[in-house]
Amino acid sequence: xxxxxxxxxxxxxxxxxxxxxxxxxxxxxxxxxxxxxxxxxxxxxxxxxxxxxxxxxxxxxxxxxxxxxxxxxxxxxxxxxxxxxxxxxxxxxxxxxxxxxxxxxxxxxxxxxxxxxxxx
Length: 120
Prior knowledge:
Blueprint: H1 11-15, H2 18-24, H3 38-47, H4 62-65, H5 67-78, H6 101-110
């Protein structure tokens, strides 16, 4: 295990138990196509003890290669268990939005404009 101290308060510290760390040892030396390793991902949380997550994904492949850690963090953060729950597919068709007349009247009074931003 990384040299965690009492100062380390990141989510990685709570998730990375000896059993999971032993499993992840098999990934030692594994790199994504852009060269990102498990050590790179964990380094932020080890060097900076008070980070919220303490684990970084250097590229999109990290979500698959180091998926067990990433999924555990997502589960802890959002209360979502990918093994038991299925995320519904996105349905962004405005025509399928159902509002009652009361909802529409209330929104018309309050909302002047709306902006949506999607980030990952």
